[in-house]
Amino acid sequence: MTRDSHSAQIIILNGAPRSGKSSIVRAVQEHFEGPWINLGVDGYNAMTPKRYLPGIGLRPGGERPELEELVPFLYAALYESIAIHAGFGLNVVADLGHHDSYSRPLGILADCARRLEDFPVLFVGVRCPIETIMRRREIAQEGRETLYLNATEEVPVPEPVQRWQDEVHRPGIYDMEVDTSVLTPLECAEAIRHQLDLGIPEPSAFERIAGMR
Predict the structure, then answer these.
(1) So what's the pLDDT on residue 140?
(2) Which of 39, 43, 106, 193 is such that its CA lies 20 to 30 A from the CA of 91?
């Protein structure tokens, strides 16, 4: 297979859990022309053996060092898959939560960016205030049991949730950002479409990240 850097478009959405990434993915798939394949965290974790979960969704804080050796390989395989799909002319939209707050820095994002150096990539920061994320978590767990940590009067924002908020947007280099507390998923998707029509800025966010050590 010969990779063609102009054969497809790639959108990487990066943000904390419950920031609204999956809803944007659905809007992209429903309203953008052509096939858009979702190669994000939920789908990838559905393929990951249960004993290795949360896999690439391992949250910040270095809580599972026994899994950390595997996580870079999972990300590498996922990004190589993104490259293969794009090489066949399939557009890709991936909702992920990149961070480097493991028990030691792993440099995964820069490695992933280098794996897509032959392709145009729009890297989108999906922002959402912590108050909105907490409300969405409460709605998501109503009427069913979940593994969510609950807020209390003493701790309105559980520490793991705050860690996601603090770590997921480092280094914060993006081609564009959207705020899902003020834009609907469709409005976010339309803003992304507009940026794609304008063109990815040069150098792109992934080009800059790929050069980081």
Answers:
(1) 80
(2) 106
Q: Is 92 helix (H, G, I), strand (E, B) or coil?
A: strand
Does the annotation flag 185 for ligand binding? no
pLDDT the model gives residue 72: 98
Q: Where residue 105 sits, what CATH number does that domain have?
A: 3.40.50.300
3-state secondary structure of 179: strand
**Residue 18 lies in domain:** 10-211
How many separate domains does the chain show?
A: 1
Alpha carbon distances (Å) from 68 to 50, 79, 100, 182: 15, 17, 11, 35
- Does residue 62 form part of some domain? yes
> Is 166 within a domain?
yes
171 appears as a binding residue in the annotation: no
Other Cβ atoms within 10 Å of 3 Cβ, number: 12
Residues in the chain: 213
How many Å apart are CA 131 and CA 195, to the nearest integer?
A: 28
The answer on whether 18 is annotated among ligand-binding residues is yes
- For residue 3, what pLDDT is reported? 45
Q: Which residue numbers in the chain have pLDDT < 50?
A: 1-3, 5, 145-146, 148, 155
Give me the catalytic one of 4, 42, 95, 197. Answer: 42
- Quick: pLDDT tens for 40-84: 999 999 999 999 999 999 999 999 999 999 999 999 999 999 999
Residue 1 lies in a domain: no
- Torsions phi, psi for 3 (to 5 deg): -75, 135
Q: Is 21 annotated as a binding residue?
A: yes
Position 4 in a domain: no
Is 22 marked within a binding site?
yes
